[in-house]
Amino acid sequence: MRVTWVHKAGAVVAFGFAVLLSACGGDSSLRVQVAAPPAPSTAPSVEAKSPAAQLPLAAPSAPGPSAAAQASGVSGLPKGRVVSGSTRLVIPSIGVEAPIVTLGVDPDGRMQVPNNGTDVGWYNFSAAPGLSGNAVLSGHVDTATSRAAVFTRLHELKLGDAISIVENGQKADFNVFWMRSWPDDTAPLNLILGNAPSPTLTLITCSGTFDRVTRNYTERLVVRAKLPGSV
Q1: Could you tell me the pTM of the whole model?
Q2: Which of 2, 16, 49, 84 could, after both became Cys, cross-link 36 (CB 3.0–4.6 A)?
């Protein structure tokens, strides 16, 4: 059973089409507004010819304002890009090393979710991980058959903990700078899904208690991480 999470009118950026965000073992959904994807082009796609180059990461370097400034100055990738099959999310403090899969929006406006408890989903209407903007990712906190999933321990993160995007030997390192849980009916959608001035990761999963009647968790946990020295 899928429960639609409808936010109050006026609280969401109203430009584009409605989608439903799901990011939990309890398959609950959030109705939000995001910018519509660009119309398909008939011109040959350079991106399609070079999948390995579709997700350039911020160059690995010692933390510092100059490195962060350089990374934040890189333009975000066009909407609809995909991450390569080798891209992984690594969170050492909670034992996460998971593949990142590209997710989008179903024809009915429902955001897709990972089809298992081990993958992390990146939404292709958000910024590409490692580039300028807000990269939105989600993972299950549990599954129908297991109490453990990729984001089961996400609530254990602390400020300053490292989160990395790794691809083909390149790594972009981020640090947690805030995390919070909100009741599912009062989550600030613009804050969670809105753009960011520099490369940012937003990780979403369920928290609170599971209501067996509605098949929905009572809260959403959101973790935000940024490059060291960035705004």
Answers
A1: 0.71
A2: 16
